[in-house]
């Protein structure tokens, strides 16, 4: 498993599923309007042995923004409760193909764990290949998911949590704040790409979350996240990925920062750029929900 390639195939995972140092995470998450419950879907069908990683739960409990990056201590407590160690190679998947799995891939890398890959094509590709799934309405994995959530709560309440099996090594260059985005509007040292739809980027449609202005960060370019995937929701090959970025005037020789609505699909653009050798792309964690939710941040429209 090479860390310069951010995805693994379902065939590779099927062959290596029983390896003791390979752990599989179901990181499914859906937009609120989709009305899908990822934990319920996990209980009905998941890749054998997979653990459930709660994108909304393993987050900063002090923020009013959705699923912001948790503190180092909180992340370490949650993944330790899931039974994850620094020695483990992690394969992350979701129920769409490649969607929220990219966010969890990015999270582990932010906390210094590079032995992490996204399952190319996710659960749909796994099932289409005829590989088995298992169900577990109760049992160990559900208890672990609950324990991870409880561990995070305890950290944010200042209570003592159990021993950590996972040591974080925070990589600040992979995550951006609102202040860094503001500074970049003036300095233009990073090319800013936005993974939302063109209609949202151009301010032609209202944002899905109430109270958020429409438009985009001045100077940013729009590359809707679906453009880096093929029809079967697998990551495009390098030559096609390069074309997508070049068509939008993005130079692969210069630094890039990505954002989206809430910091999920921005990670898909980071995943695509990682395949092209750009392994240091930061994600603006608060993304448009933070930026468009302020009254004093500059906003551009079409």
Topology overview:
Elements: E1 7-8, H1 10-16, E2 22-26, H2 38-44, E3 51-52, H3 72-81, E4 89-93, H4 100-110, E5 116-119, H5 122-128, H6 140-156, E6 175-176, H7 178-187, E7 191-194, H8 198-201, E8 221-222, H9 238-247, E9 256-259, H10 266-275, E10 283-284, H11 287-291
Parallel strand pairs: 1-5, 2-3, 2-4, 4-5, 6-10, 7-8, 7-9
Helix pairs in contact: 3-6, 4-10
Structural write-up:
By secondary structure, the chain is an alpha/beta fold. The protein is built from eleven helices and ten strands. The protein has helices at 10-16, 38-44, 72-81, 100-110, 122-128, 140-156, 178-187, 198-201, 238-247, 266-275, 287-291, and strands at 7-8, 22-26, 51-52, 89-93, 116-119, 175-176, 191-194, 221-222, 256-259, 283-284. β4 (89-93), α4 (100-110) and β5 form a beta-alpha-beta unit. α3 runs antiparallel to α6 (140-156) and α4 packs across α10 (266-275).
List keywords for this structure.
alpha/beta; 10 strands; five-stranded parallel sheet; 302 residues; globular
- Listing every helix as H and every strand as E from the N terminus to the C terminus, the arrangement reads EHEHEHEHEHHEHEHEHEHEH
The percentage helix is: 25-40%
With strands numbered from the N-terminus, the spatial order across the biggest sheet is: 1-5-4-2-3
Terminus-to-terminus distance: 43 Å
Number of β-strand runs: 10
Question: What profile does the largest beta sheet have?
Answer: 5 strands, parallel
Relative strand content: 5-15%
- Contiguous runs where pLDDT drops below 50 for at least 5 residues: none
Which of globular, elongated, flat, extended, rod-shaped describes the shape? globular
Mean pLDDT: 95
- Provide a count of the helices: 11
Structural class: alpha/beta
Radius of gyration: 19 Å
